[in-house]
Amino acid sequence: MITPATGPAHEEARKGPAPADRMPTIKDVAELAGVATSTVSRALSKPDRVNQHTRQRIQEAAAQLNYVPSSQAKGLSSGRTGTVAVLVPDITNPFYFDIIRGTQHQLKAAGLTQLLVDTEESSEMELDALHKMRRSADGFVLAASRLTDAQLAEVAGSQPLVTINRASADAPSVVIDTPSAIIQALDHLASLGHNRVCYVGGPPTSWSNEMRWKVFEEDSRRRGMETHRIGPFIPKTTSGAAAADAALRTGATACVVFNDLLAIGMLQRLQARGIRVPEDMSIVGSDDIFGADFCNPPLTTISSPIEQAGRVAVAMLLSQLNPVPGGASRKLAVMPTHLTIRQSTGPAPD
Amino acid sequence: MITPATGPAHEEARKGPAPADRMPTIKDVAELAGVATSTVSRALSKPDRVNQHTRQRIQEAAAQLNYVPSSQAKGLSSGRTGTVAVLVPDITNPFYFDIIRGTQHQLKAAGLTQLLVDTEESSEMELDALHKMRRSADGFVLAASRLTDAQLAEVAGSQPLVTINRASADAPSVVIDTPSAIIQALDHLASLGHNRVCYVGGPPTSWSNEMRWKVFEEDSRRRGMETHRIGPFIPKTTSGAAAADAALRTGATACVVFNDLLAIGMLQRLQARGIRVPEDMSIVGSDDIFGADFCNPPLTTISSPIEQAGRVAVAMLLSQLNPVPGGASRKLAVMPTHLTIRQSTGPAPD
DNA sequence: CAACTTATGGCAATCGCTTGCCGCAACATT
DNA sequence: AATGTTGCGGCAAGCGATTGCCATAAGTTG
């Protein structure tokens, strides 16, 4: 009874009503229901286009065969893949986990699936992925893109995409307004009596790193503080030791750190060196990632609605993919942030 | 010069040599190179099948058009999607991050892309995803599957899959050998003088939770300890408070906790209640996730090669997808674990 | 009752690529 | 010179859906 399979049929698992080894196609459903494939297709996607009675027969047939349409074939004609690629520089980094969580959530709600890509902090890999996946994803979410402005502009011109934490005139972006919270942080530090402050820098290719530094420099100077900058550092806890040592050498009494990962690494190093936080040195992180609340001491940091940023990014992408005739879609979303004060900041020493 | 696009052509971004708005197809390449599409196809996938000279001409044409084959169309004929779905119960949980990192790594190496799915701890969603994505993924990696044995057996019979932390006779599995480290942990606790111990349970549907408890019970009894079990708890830090309170009520002096997330949550609660760890209560976590080393106090825990487990799972899946004629592929991989002693365990009180 | 609509389902082209089969030319072999 | 080999490309048939167009039947309208 089994159709002579073309490929090497694997023999196991032919229990139950499974008709053949092969996946059921729309044709099988059509035959079982006694209609043409076109009717099956319509019954399944445009129910109104088909007679109530026929439709039901088809649905039963489909259910009986356990039929699932091939997304590939569907995509072939429609040109859509039902997929969105999310590119992050480093899956290792909890910051991106939250983004991923956000995009995943929103994509699922839209019936799309998420293709996750780690670009390993490399603009080449990013560009390459963007290129290779052009055909396999309907759109892209670029988290903390490492692309140059020119590259980004070019890519944005040829495929739907939205960036996170990387503003650009050429692509819709959602940016997290960390700068304004940096001002809050400096305020906080100033009120604690700090006047020698240090910015601990992240990856040189990071757009948000530059933004943060710019605001930090400007605002701390305005306040008449002694401003230092160290870095760049790879934003991982393991770089924290070098960062902490360098920070100590500057003589600053408080650091604003590119991100929490690095800040937590510094905390560990400072503790190891017997430097007390916040008594001897205050530390402000950024992002409020998983772990910032239970490290030792709990980290004062800039809380960002990261997951929400991921969700908004997807929403913007969707409105780009299915434009509504009326309104132009939003080109920029700014996510608010705030300073969360925990225990890694305190009065300046002396 | 522009072909009258069928859809509403978007006008921007027609800079550069982009010929039309449409993506170049194999046909475009064929025309430009002056050959048939079949030749292009072969030149690109089976280079030997085509003359060196022709091949080069084709490659140039492809490069010039910036051609990328449609994975959809490719898949249509080959039946492959070039994609593997990874199902995790909760993307929120750092444990799975490490798995994802591992699978991602190995998949990329194999030229496959990863479809990430969050099943939200629900066996229905898991089953549903497995069903709906049957056609869009070549195989599945089920991390900590919530499926029943019967469900798992059925699914495993009809599609290539490998499980992580869920042994089954019906599917290749990689399991993390936490149980043997639980014995180590009890050894450690016993040597510190603890004789009232408590297992803090995770999700009732978790296979590994059951395994851990079984070993815990058996071994602690064998040692003549007073054995308690509390739970189930949702394995998040937020459940830690309830878990900590319940643990305290048992009178145990040491807890072995289902996972680090829960353990860290307990740490926080115990600290809030003024219970000192490890002086008043020792805590042993499980998995050694991100954060276990910098929480307060740093957590004694069962270190697991999580990322590696993800990698091995993919390797096993691949050998299932591309079976070598000779050897039968491995059905079970056991990943070794060990106890990492930090500062959340200490001598029993009294 | 003729002329129109409308509802419904089938036919066949199409999407982009792969692949079995065939043809042809250039060599190699008796 | 006749007959095999090879190497190389083209033809055309799929793969599994979608969809424009058409045919048929049934219901409406004047």
The helix-strand sequence of chain A is: HHHHEHEHEHEEHEHEHEHEEHEE
Report the total helices of chain A.
Answer: 12
CATH-level-4 superfamily name of the largest domain in chain A? Response regulator
Q: By helix and strand content of chain A, what is the structural category? A: alpha/beta
Number of DSSP-assigned strands of chain A:
12
Largest interface: A-B, 51 and 51 residues
Shape of chain A, please? Answer: elongated
> Could you name the CATH class of the largest domain in chain A?
Alpha Beta
Which sheet architecture does the biggest sheet of chain A show? Answer: 6 strands, parallel
Overall pLDDT level of chain A: 91
Organism (chains A, B): Arthrobacter nitrophenolicus
Keywords (chains A, B): DNA-binding, Transcription, Transcription regulation
Domain HTH lacI-type (chains A, B): 24-78
Region (Disordered) (chains A, B): 1-23
Quick tags:
homodimer, 350 residues, alpha/beta, Rossmann fold, six-stranded mixed sheet, DNA-binding, LacI/GalR-like_sensor (chains A, B), LacI family transcriptional regulator (chains A, B), DNA-binding (chains A, B), transcription regulation (chains A, B)
